[in-house]
Specification:
Blueprint (H helix, E strand, L loop, with lengths): L1 E10 L2 E9 L4 E5 L6 H9 L4 E8 L2 E2 L10 E4 L11 H6 L10 H13 L15 H15 L3 E5 L7 H18 L2 E5 L3 H7 L2 E6 L2 E2 L3 E2 H6 L3 H7 L2
Parallel strand pairs: 2-10, 3-8, 3-9, 6-7, 7-8
Antiparallel strand pairs: 1-2, 1-4, 4-5, 9-10, 9-11
Helix pairs in contact: 3-4, 4-5
This protein binds adenosine-5'-triphosphate.
Length: 231
């Protein structure tokens, strides 16, 4: 399980408190008003922002002071972060080896990951030769290869059209379920949260609250969330 124990995450002068548990294998939406601290929570867990107080633990190992690369975390960002001068296979291969020294076995794993996300045969293309949806798929393949138990999504599909976004969300949910990964996903769209998450963390008033059933929270939103959702 992921445990945030009386944790305070600092983002410049803004601080976010969190005291919560996310069970292993859970799929959890992170919802709340704009500027409430959703990205702060995700980046704190990933180690890009410091935990000023308290602790963060994964499966009883304290990761509070670990650098991002050492944490059991893979993150999918708002931008797909593909390198334009590298081929798709190389971009995805970075998930296995930052210096791209890939063994034949590694190369086979890259191809398998590309196949899994529906990019069979596109190994040698550059990101500029792909559609937005295909670039998202490639970024997902790279995250898959990192093989980390905790998958954090900061609205990676926001720029895609609704149909493609749903397709990508379903693919992420399938992959998380196949690998047993624990999924935390920032979402502005209630339908996205309902589609692939069972639990939701409400971030509001400087606090990330303990997960509650997504449907329950969205059906009966507290005032701070009601205003934001416009319901
Ligand atoms: N470097 C910084 N210094 C001070 N305050 C910051 C800094 N970066 C972000 N903030 C503030 O921290 C708060 C939380 O920001 P954060 O990006 O986590 O919110 P969010 O819930 O993800 O917002 P959104 O839904 O709009 O993306 C905001 O009020 C923001 O203005």
């Amino acid at each position: 399980m992921l445990k945030l124990e009386a944790a305070t995450i600092r983002n410049g002068t803004f601080t976010l408190s969190a005291d919560l548990i996310v069970p292993t294998g859970a799929t959890v939406a992170v919802i709340g008003p704009s500027g409430a601290g959703k990205s702060t929570l995700i980046e704190g867990i990933a180690g890009f922002l410091p935990t000023a107080q308290g602790r963060i633990a994964w499966q009883d190992t304290d990761i509070t002071d670990q650098p991002p690369g050492a944490r059991p975390v893979a993150m999918l960002f708002q931008e797909d972060n593909l390198f334009p001068h590298l081929t798709l296979a190389q971009n995805v291969g970075l998930g296995l080896s930052p210096n791209l020294r890939l063994s034949p076995d590694d190369k086979a794993r890259v191809r398998a990951a590309l196949n899994r996300v529906g990019l069979t045969g596109m190994d040698t293309r550059k990101p500029g030769e792909l559609s937005g949806g295909q670039r998202s798929r490639a970024a997902l393949a790279r995250v898959m290869l990192q093989d980390k138990p905790l998958l954090l999504l900061d609205e990676p599909f926001a720029a895609l059209g609704p149909a493609l976004r749903m397709e990508m969300l379903d693919l992420v949910a399938q992959i998380a379920s196949e690998t047993g990964a624990t999924l935390l996903m920032i979402s502005h769209a209630p339908e996205d949260a309902r589609r692939i998450t069972k639990q939701a963390i409400l971030v509001a008033d400087g606090t990330a609250h303990a997960p509650r059933p997504t449907g329950e929270l969205l059906d009966n939103p507290p005032p701070v969330l009601r205003d934001y959702l416009g319901s």
